[in-house]
Design a protein that fits this description.
Length: 147
């Protein structure tokens, strides 16, 4: 859809482990709730480049998860595991948390945007679909690194 609407932009579909870009191509690499390969991020960043990583905080959508699963485990976030050969310096970290109330079809739409949707039973899906509103926790971990 985006490629049709924004024709001046370039889009790629590729593996995070083998990005189709030259070494040192980017000033900034942005990753939001997606798998990433730290060696590939490091390779693609210019010297002094920035890696911005956004992942789920511990309580992200825990109320929705509680409607899908019998027991809920907290998210583990998006930890960055570095070794001596790939060094990015952490320069900023912040947790952002907010409560939101969603209503009507927005509840099912939100469910469909999560991995929870692929393991939910029909009974629980109908139960969620019958809700008129749901309070949810939006919980994000933002991390910024410099090459």
């Amino acid at each position: 859809m985006a490629a049709k609407q924004f024709k001046a932009a370039s889009y790629s579909v590729a593996s995070a482990a083998n990005l189709p870009y030259r070494d040192g191509s980017f000033d900034v690499v942005l990753d939001i709730f997606a798998p990433y390969s730290l060696p590939e991020v490091h390779r693609c960043l210019k010297s002094e480049g920035i890696f911005l990583l956004v992942g789920p905080g511990r309580e992200h959508l825990s109320e929705l998860a509680g409607l899908v699963y019998d027991s809920v485990n907290s998210h583990k976030g998006n930890p960055v595991k570095q070794d001596d050969s790939i060094l990015l310096s952490p320069i900023f970290q912040r947790r952002v948390t907010e409560q939101q109330t969603i209503a009507g079809e927005q509840i099912l739409n939100l469910l469909m945007m999560t991995p929870y949707y692929w393991s939910i039973s029909e009974d629980k899906k109908q139960q969620i679909n019958s809700l008129t509103s749901l309070n949810v926790t939006l919980d994000f971990e933002l991390q910024v690194f410099k090459k």
